[in-house]
Amino acid sequence: MDPIRRKILKAGAAATAMAAAPRVLAQQTGQGAAAGPFYEKGPVRIHYQEAGSGFPLLLIAGGGLNSTIAGLNNPFNAIEEFKGEYRCIASDLRNANNGQSSGPLEIDRPWDAHTDDHLGVMDHLGIDKFMVMGFCIGGPFIWNLLERAPNRVVAAVLAQPSGFRPEMPNLNFENNMTGWGPQLVKRRPEITMAMVERFLTKMYRTNPDFVWTVTRDFVRNCQTPVLILPDDIPAHPYAVAMEAAMLAPKAEVSMFPWKEPKERIPLAVRQIRSFLRAHRPAST
Question: How far is Cα 193 from Cα 201, in angstroms, rounded to an integer?
Fold first, then answer.
């Protein structure tokens, strides 16, 4: 073979291997530290990872506005548990401090901006119908997805969902004002704490009730199968999770508590797996 051609082929093979490495690493580790692909739309740049194959399963980590792919290892490693059966897709939340996603602070539509990103990644990957599992802040995000894309979400799992707690009305606002906003402002000089305050006010104080993103009437009429795994810490009110479960006509509920003792977690994972299998389209 011509030496020049051999060099070109060798370089091409090396480039292909390098391009594939992030995805392979993501599949092996399920962590957010590895470099990975990005979905970009205008000023929005969302870092995402894929692992496994099968029917698409969107995973949303907990951690509030600092939700990243790495957070999917708590309270169990969701990617490792489900990549053997599903095409798992996860992303760093826009502007999460320890993530690689970035974009404008859309003060007038905080919840919808993040839902745009979730749907945008799925569109970017050519995925129409999918299932979704979310932790903590993933609960409100999932209800928003079910309202905005009811024909695309086949089934949903809400684990330790966050919600409004009347006896602690400013909890989520204050947590993010201290645990998210200051570090974001340090990284992004064009964003001020005044902007962060307006963003969080719109997110958590404008409609301080229930799950923030949808009404009880929506949940009462939602025909998507949902599995809810309640928690009961300040940010994850048991009462809200159970109210949603009672209202949603196709809801199922896990045992409670399901995270403690830790020996119960595998049982909860088995219930999630059974629920997803029961609602996975037969053609897959």
Answer: 12
Beta strand pairing call for 86-91 and 44-51: antiparallel
For the chain, the C-alpha Rg in angstroms (whole number) is 20
Distance, in Å, from the CA atom of 254 to the CA atom of 32, rounded to the nearest integer, reads 28
Q: Say whether 33 sits in a helix, a strand or coil.
A: coil
Which among 111, 93, 91, 49 has a CA at the least distance from the CA of 184?
93
Please tell me whether residue 283 adopts helix, strand or coil conformation: coil
Task: Tell me, rounded to whole angstroms, the distance of Cα 76 from its chain centroid.
Answer: 15
Query: Strand 153-159 vs strand 226-229: parallel, antiparallel, or unpaired?
Result: parallel
Q: What is the pLDDT of residue 283?
A: 67
Domains of the chain: residue spans and CATH: 37-279 (3.40.50.1820)
Q: What is the pLDDT of residue 144?
A: 98
CA-to-CA dists, residue 244 to 123, 141, 143, angstroms: 28, 14, 10
Compute φ and ψ for 277, nearest 5 degrees: -65, -40
φ, ψ for residue 191, nearest 5 deg: -105, 135
| Residue 284: pLDDT band with limits 50, 70, 90 | very low
- Angle at the Cα of 27 (from 22 to 31), degrees rounded to 5? 80
% of the chain exceeding 70 in pLDDT: 87
Helix (H) or strand (E) holding 132: strand 130-135
Give the CA distances from residue 19 to residues 35, 36, 37, in Å, rounded to whole numbers and listed in that order. Answer: 10, 9, 9
Amino acid at 207: N
